[in-house]
Amino acid sequence: MMLLLLTFSESCFAADYVVKMKRKSGVYAIPCVVNGVKRDFIFDTGAANTSLSQEFVKELLNKKRLLQTDFTGAIQTRNASGVVDNNTTINIRELRVGNRVLHNVRAIIAVAQKAPLLLGLNAIELLGDWSIRKQRFILHDNTPEPLANQPNPAITDVVIEDVELVEQPSWQEQSPTLPDGSPRPSLQVLAYKGDAQAQYMLGMKYLTDESDIAIKSKGVYWLHLSAEQDYKLAQLQLAECYSKGIGVEVNEEISEYWRNRAEQEEVDE
Length: 269
Fold this sequence. Notes:
Elements: H1 2-15, E1 17-20, E2 22-24, E3 27-34, E4 37-43, E5 50-52, H2 54-62, E6 71-78, E7 84-97, E8 100-109, E9 118-119, H3 121-124, E10 130-133, E11 136-139, H4 187-192, H5 196-207, H6 213-227, H7 232-244, H8 252-268
Helix pairs in contact: 5-6, 6-7, 7-8
């Protein structure tokens, strides 16, 4: 009888799906596949949401594994230091973890360009019954099919409304479709792909929010990305932000730098 029970126990464990975890800087990571692109994610039960870096999002966009319709809005999150960040949210259409396939999992885009990739509770809870033994992540086979399409209630969404800008670049007045009939990329998609004009527009969009200093800071962030590509309007607006303390602390030296750089670009033209 003892031998029979032992054999039964071993056969049950053998049917489980075992993933070897990788130890990185004191934390454990497991391989995941996001819309067909494989990456190691830190297994973080302390994080409410799955999180992607801006660098990885740009790669997904370039590989056409992320579409403009996958950008779903924005939420506020509080980091370990207690600072509130304003993060863009996206929908991961397919997230593979071991032999589990999750659909329509919400993820946030971290503020840092090369932030670590985190597998948060909103995805972990959909995996069903799991355990960790000796650096191995085990997905148990006695788990019913996970309900991957349920909403994630961890954080309340704060949607950033569209606002009318003082200056509307001509490209925004064009047809919503490209000449081939495909949808014109959204402002956020173009900004994450590195389009200087779109980065300026997105920065100005955040700066118009009168209620939240943190959102204005994110606007300054996008202006910086645009200004570094020598987009004159972004450089002039950045100079204004540092001169008046909009989204940043007043710094006349930095303000003067961007104003001079914009004027230099104008002379060169």
